Fold this sequence. Notes:
Blueprint: H1 2-21, E1 47-55, H2 60-79, E2 83-92, H3 103-113, E3 119-122, H4 125-128, H5 132-143, E4 150-153, E5 158-159, H6 166-196, E6 208-210, E7 216-218, H7 220-235, H8 239-249, H9 262-270, E8 278-279, E9 283-284, E10 294-295, E11 304-305, H10 315-328, E12 340-341, E13 351-352, H11 362-370, H12 375-378, E14 399-401, E15 412-416, E16 420-423, H13 425-430, E17 436-442, E18 447-453, E19 461-462, E20 464-466, E21 472-474, E22 477-478, H14 483-490, E23 497-507, E24 510-525, E25 539-545, E26 548-553, E27 561-563, H15 564-568, H16 571-578, E28 589-590, H17 591-595, H18 602-623
Helix pairs in contact: 7-18, 8-9
Amino acid sequence: MLESEANISNKELRREKIRERYKGSNSELLEVIPGKKAADFYDDVERRVAVYVRVSTDNLQQTSSYELQKNYYEEKVSKNPNWTLVGIYADEGISGTSLLHREAFNRMIEDCKAGKIDMIITKSVSRFARNIVDCISIVRQLSSLKNPVGVRFETEGIFTLNDNTEMSLSFTATIAQEESHIKSSIMNSSIEMRFGRGIVLTPVLLGYDHDEDGKLTINEKEAKTVRLIFFMYLYGYSCKDIANSLTELGRQTKKGNTTWNAGSVLEILRNERHCGEILTRKTYTPSYLDHKSKKNRGERAQHRWKGDHEPIISKDDFIAVQHLINNAKYGNKGILPELKVIPEGALKGFISINPRWAGFKVDDYLYIAKTVCDNDEQNEDETIQIEAQGGDFDYRGFEIAREQFFNNSDKLSVTFSLKSMKFSYNCVKKLADTQFIELLIHPLKKLLIVRATDSKNKNAMKWLFLNGKGDYISRPVSGTAFLKNIYDLLGWNGNCKYRVRGIRKQNGDESLLIFSLEETELYLPKDTEMCDVKSDTEITSLAETGKSVIAYPSAWGNNFGSNYYHHSQAEELQRMKKEKDWNMQQEITSFSDYLDLNVTSREEAGDNIQTLINDMKMEETNDG
C-alpha cells in the first residue's frame, strides 16, 4: 500500500510542475523577432512578371481571343510601376490537358527555375492546365524553388503563394479537367453520328482534288503516280525500289516534294480511298488527357463507305496488295493470296496452312471449309447412327478415357504458343525420314492433320534438324504468320501455351498424324492470375512443371472422356476407313477461286508500268 501511495504522490508532483511551466514567463524578458510576411499578390514590391496565354485551337475565332489576352495583360503589367514584364509566353492551337507540344509553357517553367521570373499571371486555371495532376505539381514545384514563383489566376482570384489556396486550386483544376472530359465525349459522339451518316473526313490525298462539296475527284496527273505505285508492287517491287524509281522520275508527292521514301509509298498502298472506299476511325485516342492516338483494332466502331468516289485502282488489286503487304515480312512473294482446301475424299474440308501468309482471318478459313462441306458435315451436334451386327458388344454409356490422365511419355503431342509449335519426338518417329511436313486444319471440326511433304511444296515446314550424332531431332516450327488464327479460332489465351494429343492413321505407305484441338492441356505461367484467362474458360489447376502450371478444363471433371460411339464413329475417322485410296497428293482448290478476284496479272502489270513511265517522261519533256 505504501508503495502505491508513493507512486500517486509522484504523479501529482509531476503534474504540478507541468502546470507551473505552462503559466508562462515574465513578458518583460521576452523579445519577439517577427518573421517575413508571406508574399501576396498586392504587395508593392519589385517583381519580374511573366504572362501565360493559351488558346486550344488555331481557328480564326480563337485567334481573336488569343490577341485580346495578350493585349490585356501587356497593358495590365505596364500600369504597375513595380512590375517588369519578362515576356508573354503564348501557345496557340494547343490543348491544355497535356504538357506535350506546349513549347512556350515549358520554356516559361524553365525560366522560372533559372531565377528569371518572380510571378506568372494567367487568365484562369483552365488556361494554365486542364490536367489536375499537372496543375498542382507544377504550382508546388514553383513554390518550392529557392526564389519561390507564384501564379496568379485572374478569373478565380487565386495566388498560389498564399497558404490557403491549394484546396480551392485543386477544386477549380478538377472542374477544368472534367470540362475537357465532357467536351471530348461530346466530340466523339458527334464524330460517330457524322460517320454513320456518311459525313466523313477527306484530307488531301495524292491522286485526288476536292470539288465544291468536298468530295474527292481524280487528279489525272497525280493518279498516274498512284497507279504506277500499285502496279509496281503487284509486279514484285519493294516499297524502297518504288520510292527510288519515283525519285528518279521526278514525280511529286502531294506536298510537292520530289524525294520519296519507303514509308510514303507504303502509306499510299495502305489507303483504301484509292479504290473508291472510305474506312473511318482507323485510329482513336483512348485518353483525352495525353491525346496519344492508337491503332483501332476493334476497340471503336468503324464505318466503311463503298463507292464514295471514283477509284484510281480496282478493289481487287487493292485487296491483293494488302495481302502482299501483310505477308512480306514472312518472306512470301506470291502475287495472289493462296489458301487452299481439299474438296473431296478422306481429307475433305481440310485447309492447307501456308506458313508465310498472315493476311487471312478465321472467317476466311471457315468460309472456304463451308464451300466444300455440306450442311450435314457442318453440323457438329448431328446424331450418331450406329450399325450393330449380331454378337456386337453394347458400349452405350462407356467412355474412351483421355490420354492426358495416363502416363503418356510415349504419346504423340504438339505444344502451341503464339510464336511457334513444337512436336514431341514420338511424332517424328511416326513419320520417319520426313524432314518437311504440311499442316492441314479443319476449322469446322477443330482438327489438325500433319502429313509428310517435300521442300518443293510452297506450304512445307521444316520440323527436324540434325544433331551432332547424325540423328534427326524435333525443332520448333515458326508460326507467327498463322498461329494467331488458330488461337482466335479456338478462343485460346495468347499468354498461355496449349498441348494437344494425337493419333496416327496409316493406309498402306501413307501416314497421317491427327490432333483434336478441342482436347487441350493448358500451360499457365506461374505468375498468371486466373482473372487473366478469358472469363468463359473454366480451368482446374493440377500440377506445376518448370515455369508453368498445367491446367485442364473443369468440364473434364464430370467424365473420363468422350462417348465411345461418338469417338469411334467420328466422321473423319469413318471416312478414312471407307476410302480405299486417301489420294493424299490430289490437287487442292485455291481460295482465290472462291474470292473471284480479278487481279491484274504480273504480265499486265509489267505492261502498265512501261506505259505509265513512258507517259511520265513525255509529260516531263512537254513541260520542259
